[in-house]
Design goal:
Dehydroquinate synthase-like, alpha domain, 70% helix, mainly alpha
Length: 229
């Protein structure tokens, strides 16, 4: 055991800063994936008049912070990722850290969760996804929520292209679940739709069948924009 730990330390030392850069970049991007859901889930909770995590209805202040979180991600996300990969901290990185922690944290506490996090919870039933970070699964859950809402094409395209640019997964393959069966995906949909989970905060009735269709469609859209179809 000691030899294994020693070898791991040696490998880390040999790899040096590039490994640290890669880890910092992926963790921050995963944080962006989690923060991405903040605005869209807040919007859904506001429309459905759902109870927030703090116990009340979504306030105007919560929506303003959620929207600022989203705008910061869109404006600074790619710049922050590139800077982190270069091993430097820039104003873009600092703004993304604020969005990932303060803005997203207050936003979800004061507004609530909806489809994106429920679908993340459903994805956890797949062992194939266990190596993925929370925010990476939430990002794909956000795409599926947008499909459920049937948002305008331009909005869906903007989010998919941004996810691709910063390196967030937009397909089941990128989540490690490219070979799962429809039966397995239905289990994901059922888990996401479980009583007491946050799909009930969507402003319309959601069923396991509609979640299954949204996951399949989100995967297809992701493959389309990646040029795989």
């Amino acid at each position: 055991m000691k030899n294994k730990l020693k070898r791991k330390k040696e490998c880390a030392k040999e790899a040096g800063i590039p490994v640290q850069r890669e880890v910092a970049s992926r963790l921050t991007v995963a944080g962006m994936g989690d923060a991405l859901a903040t605005y869209f889930e807040a919007r859904a909770c506001q429309r459905s008049e759902a109870t927030s995590c703090a116990g009340g209805n979504t306030t105007g202040a919560a929506m303003a912070l959620a929207e600022l979180c989203f705008d910061t991600l869109m404006e600074e996300g790619v710049k922050a990722k590139i800077a982190l990969e270069a091993g430097v901290c820039t104003p873009a990185v600092e703004k993304i850290i604020e969005a990932n922690t303060l803005l997203s944290g207050i936003g979800f506490e004061s507004a609530g969760f909806a489809g994106a996090h429920a679908i993340h919870n459903g994805l956890t039933v797949l062992e194939e996804c266990h190596h993925m970070y929370h925010g990476e699964k939430v990002a794909f859950g956000t795409l599926a929520q947008l499909v459920l809402e049937n948002v305008p094409h331009e909005e869906l395209e903007e989010i998919i292209m941004w996810c691709i640019e910063v390196g967030l997964p937009v397909t089941l393959e990128e989540l490690g679940a490219g070979n799962v069966t429809d039966e397995q995906l239905m289990e994901v949909a059922k888990a996401a739709s479980a009583e007491g989970d946050t799909l009930q905060n969507m402003p319309f009735t959601v069923t396991p069948e509609s979640v299954f269709a949204a996951i399949k469609a989100a995967d297809a859209y992701g493959r389309y924009y990646l040029g795989e179809e």
